[in-house]
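lol so apparently i was supposed to do this last week
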Amino acid sequence: MLSYSSCMLPAVAALLVTCHALPECPGNTELPEIPALSQRDGLIGQSHLSNGFRGQLGSLVSPPRRNRLPWENGLPNSLDTDPRDVIADLKHRLCRLEGVLVLNEKIRKVGDKIFASNGKKADFASALGSCEEAGGTLATPMNEEENKAVLSFVKQYNQYAYLGIKESETPGQFKYINSMPLSYTQWYQYEPNGKGTEKCVEMYTDGSWNDKRCNLNRLIICEF
Ligand code: MAN
Ligand code: CA
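anyway here it is w/ calcium ion bound
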């Protein structure tokens, strides 16, 4: 049986390849409807998206599709669709889904990062586990804009949150979960002060950071 992930992975991989060259989602109302792929049966030798739409999706300008060769007649419809149209269609649908999630305050987008919270609380290890199970990691603000995005969840749920930062073997020295040294910090005054006894980091409701024990219940905020 074909699982959801095995269906999606090639498509997502294709998007990842193109996403770097693409701009952010354009305004949704500006976008023309793309006919359902099933309604485009039999069409070949032309792109089914307007140049305008292609342009909005990051100038996916490419030569017109070649005509069908004699032995390609009668191919299944699934093989008869321009991959560029598939990618543009998926991009459009992703943008719409992201729009819904932003509108409903489920996610915050900052650059290439997406922050999300399920509003639940857990200790550090469980919170990290939840984020990783979902394909992400604990929220790790790397600049002021990201810190503000994470803070907005802390305020939304009025709960301190664990960050993706841990104390190293050297007391008082903190690093990212992947062991890289911190490149941005927002310590509250006189923090970190645990000197080896507070190995995790929480965000306060003003966006500042405090080193804290890892076995408390804190809001789960992930990044993807
Ligand atoms: C408590 C803990 C510490 C924190 C101090 C600040 O003792 O939350 O992590 O540094 O308060 O006064
Ligand atoms: Ca502290």
